[in-house]
Design a protein that fits this description.
Rossmann fold; globular; 649 residues; 21 helices; alpha/beta; 22% strand; 4 domains; D-amino Acid Aminotransferase, Chain A, domain 1; single chain; 7-stranded mixed β-sheet; 10-stranded mixed β-sheet
Length: 649
């Protein structure tokens, strides 16, 4: 017989002789509000978990099961019951994460006696890493006062629990586990446009245990065929790396896949590049390979004996990468002025020095029916913040953190706020997430209205929680023409054109896929043809991929929609409707905008797109930008005629 010890179940993680994490496992629990049923509260709990990238990854959804039915019945409840205000209702008697349990970081509360005990156990066992399951009612009290018992000691502890509780990011915890460097498996990338050569490599026997091989059309692990849902090579490679039994990696790529998606891994032990693929059009992909490869070899035939031998040797080398940087534990967001929300459609935007566009931005969205604005100001110095503070419908946010800083939950602050601030508005709120130079346009059938009788009512009827929009870049006939427009002129009333050439297409699963099209792509090609030296100075040696020219600007809070970056979310928007964002990058304030971005390097790939615009302003400002695909912008109707915005049902 074992003694019954009351209390909560804790996992103590000791690494290299030091207690680095302590997590309390919690049974799945809901808290009543006097209005929502148990079923609704559980749905809310699941939605909140999905809304946080770390809990979405490491915690399970709570599902309706017989054991939960019985546990509720023992408390006099069922799924339709409405718990009273602040009543805590446990859904299970156990706290296992695998059955829907939660996790709470309690490292700062651990009593010194418990800390010393855990570290002594690790020292006595001579283990670099152990996980101790410790049962007690209050971990802040010593065992002599509160009692407690060790349930078991794990010599190969899992780390998921300490990520789910937000105690560490994946990078930070990985650095602690591996010591002075982040370990990396041996990775070889072969770039060859010859399909038969890649097939020969995919079936070669390299005699490397745990070898994963990934290509656009195949994926094997230890010789076994895998089915990967991801369609892009970059995503398929990431999925293979997530397999715990993958100890070495061979990626089979084409020049086109690297040019479209970027280099498939952050660093490769060896990259073999087929010499027949070289040419002027391959420079961006070649530069990406140079930047991300410890060793880059140009060979005539990667699948020949010499290539096979080089690959086999490289797959036995384990490179080391630098230690992860120190991380902030929270974003330290605060409001400088809080507007009383009306509960209607809201806009969220991040702004820096947008005094020219800002009045027109607010007027545009007010005309659509937006009633609440939540603006995060990034230390503007041109009066943007002061103007916002004067607006009666604006809540102004600020943070002392840098937008490129990494937070303890594993996100960059810039991405974190895209979910964190809209989440403060409560559930079932439609939020438009855009930048100051992005003006949302609606199909004509909605009469330019977002609210109860417009687009949002239609989305609610369809049950769609988000919507995709193409970023349609509007441009003047010549870049220099923009500088003759007054800074305070309405931006959509100037003579503007757009390319009737979609910058993305839909995959079979509905997700967007980049296309080489649009004015920005044409500017790159003009620079490459007329000023190749300047083009190389911008792109050579960079892991460059085309920018995404789509966004998911509309999302409904509390419905499981999570923004993964500035452009995409975790839900696939319906393909039967597409909105448009008039992207006003080429306006009269283009020069100061370029200077600011180059100084802060806060945009995509260290502001590489603004390096292109800087070169274009210097070398192409007087060039005629019109081509056979150029169309005059005449409001949203012209985009509908061009097929850039549509409703199919």
């Amino acid at each position: 017989m074992q003694q019954l010890v009351p209390g909560d179940d804790h996992r103590l993680l000791v690494l290299h002789g030091q207690l680095v994490a302590a997590t309390r496992r919690n049974p799945p629990t809901i808290v009543g509000d006097g209005r929502a049923s148990v079923a609704q509260l559980v749905a809310r709990l699941n939605a909140n978990r999905l809304a946080d990238p770390m809990t979405a990854r490491y915690l399970q959804q709570v599902k309706r099961e017989l054991l939960i039915d019985r546990y509720l019945a023992a408390q006099g409840l069922d799924w339709n019951a409405i718990p009273t205000v602040d009543r805590r209702v446990a859904l299970r008697g156990n706290a296992n994460v695998s059955t829907g349990g939660g996790a709470t970081d309690v490292l700062q509360q651990v009593h010194p006696h418990i800390r010393r005990m855990a570290e002594a156990i690790a020292a006595n066992l001579g283990m670099a890493s152990i996980g101790i399951d410790y049962l007690c009612s209050d971990i802040s009290l010593s065992p002599e006062v509160a009692g407690g018992a060790i349930i078991e000691v794990n010599t190969t502890p899992g780390l998921d629990l300490h990520l789910a509780d937000h105690g560490y990011s994946e990078e930070a915890l990985g650095a602690l586990v591996l010591g002075d460097g982040l370990g990396a498996i041996a990775t070889v990338v072969v770039v060859d446009d010859d399909a038969s050569s890649l097939r020969a490599l995919a079936t070669a026997d390299f005699q490397v245990p745990g070898l994963g091989i990934v290509g656009n059309e195949w994926a094997t692990l230890d010789g076994l065929q895998l089915t990967l849902a991801e369609s892009g090579l970059h995503d398929r490679t990431a999925r293979m790396l997530a397999q715990r039994s993958c100890n070495a990696l061979l990626v089979l790529a084409t020049v086109e896949s690297i040019a479209r998606e970027g280099f498939p891994v952050p660093a490769s032990t060896l990259t073999l590049w087929c010499s027949e693929n070289q040419g002027q059009g391959t420079l961006p992909a070649w530069g990406a390979a140079r930047r991300c490869s410890m060793e880059l070899q140009e060979v005539a035939a990667p699948s020949a004996d010499a290539g096979l031998q080089s690959i086999a040797r490289a797959l036995t080398v384990a490179p080391m990468l630098p230690r992860a940087p120190s991380l902030r534990r929270d974003a330290q967001l605060r409001t400088l002025r809080r507007h009383r929300d009306t509960g209607g459609p809201a806009v969220f935007a991040i702004m820096r020095n947008e005094s020219c566009l800002l009045p027109h931005f607010l007027d545009h969205y007010r005309a659509l029916g937006v009633e609440d604005f939540h603006i995060l100001d990034d230390n503007s110095s041109d009066g943007t913040r002061e103007f916002l503070l004067e607006q009666p419908d604006c809540t102004v946010w600020a943070t002392p953190a840098g937008f490129s800083e990494m937070l303890a939950n594993g996100e960059k602050l810039l991405h974190h706020v895209r979910n964190a601030i809209p989440a403060t508005l409560g559930t079932d709120r439609w939020v438009v997430g855009v930048d100051a130079d992005e003006f949302l346009l609606l199909p004509s059938r909605f009469d330019g209205l977002l609210g109860a009788h417009g687009l949002l009512a239609h989305l609610d009827r369809q049950g769609w929680p988000c919507m995709l929009a193409e970023m349609v870049e509007l441009y003047p006939r010549r870049l220099c023409d923009a500088f003759h427009v007054p800074l305070d002129a309405p931006p959509l009333q100037a003579p503007l054109w757009f390319d009737q050439d979609p910058t993305f297409e839909r995959r079979d699963d509905g997700r967007p896929k980049k296309r080489a099209a649009g004015i920005r792509w044409r500017l790159q090609q003009m620079l490459l043809e007329r000023h190749p030296t300047r083009h190389r100075a911008i792109y050579e040696g960079q892991n460059y991929a085309l920018p995404a020219l789509w966004k998911t600007p509309l999302a409904k809070t509390g419905n499981g929609v999570v923004y993964l970056n500035a452009h995409s979310c975790n839900r696939t928007p319906p393909s039967s409707m597409q909105l448009a964002l008039a992207h006003l990058k080429y306006g009269p304030d283009l020069r100061p905008r370029v200077r600011d971005s180059l100084a802060t390097k806060s945009h995509f790939m260290g502001s590489i797109e603004y390096r292109l615009l800087d070169a274009a302003l210097e070398l192409l400002a007087d060039e005629d930008l019109l081509c056979e695909k150029s169309r005059v912008y005449e409001g949203g109707a012209s985009l509908e005629r061009a097929g850039m915005m549509f409703v199919k049902n």
